[in-house]
Amino acid sequence: MKNNKFKFLFGLLAMFAVTLFISCNDDNGGGGAPEIENVSLAQNDSLVEYGFADNMYIIRGKGFITTQKIYFNETDTYFNSTLVTDDVILVTIDRDTPYENATDELKVVTKYGTATYHFPVAPPAPSITSFNPVNAAEGEQFTIYGSYFLDPVVTVGGVQAQVVSSSLTEIVAVMPAGSANKYVKVKTISGESEWDISAVGTAIYDDVFYDPWTIEAWNNHVFVTDQTKAFQGTTFFKKDIEGWGNIQGNWGWQEGMGNYTGIHFAVRSDDAGKLVWIFNGSGWGDATHAITTGTEWTDVRITWDQMGGVPAAMQNLSFQEFSGATHTYYFDNFGFTVD
After folding, report:
1. Pairing of strands 222-225, 235-241
2. Is the pTM of this model over 0.85?
């Protein structure tokens, strides 16, 4: 489906380029006042009577060639002038366009006049940024973080979860039965979003470590609680690691690795850094296990195949600094992958 969507958009842009060429050659100066005839969703060029923020639309009419401004609900909306001809405009509705107590009006302002068109804008599709606890059991409450959660329906692996409370940015729901190794999804009138980074019940660390795992205090790491900066949930940890130094997880024993396909974790650093991941004591000083880090979180995923096969058990996960210089490294969202 995604490939078909991209193919359609590429085809649409190609046709638009031809239309633009013809319009430029036949341009009579665009001296008339603009008129809006209809609006279509760019994804499939279907006529619509209202739009959703964060989506691209085709405005059809005439007199657009000298377009100076486009407004949705009085919001000055960015548009690419190369996607404007005398009778067609391609434009994406800004994600922050107001949708409550709004004018429900599309306005195109050109050198020669202004055209208005009744066009309500609905909120954007919801977006999940994380949830926790990842290992919530059946009947336990969990919190979903994100945006635009308007009258949300929550499902886990296709099974609807009871919503206890919700706001635009948080949902508290009850984990349904049979959720292990399944993904959390939120659906609203505007669309849906799935958090496919972590499946239910697969966490090693989300906001806390799960038995038998921890990082012992002698590592001198620090836990930071800040949901706006965390990759998952609300809490992550950091350590200033000197060149070729390390942060070491404890030694434990967890079987059942055949239930998973590998491991994942999120990492970033204050500036450009490099770490080597150490699994079950193997990998110290091995550049083939090195990952580069930067100021944005990186979701690192390592399959059992990359490790040479499914291990009998997980015993340890550690990291060695590999740039040779001191950096502050941040870690979050350790878990197992299931696909």
Report:
1. antiparallel
2. no
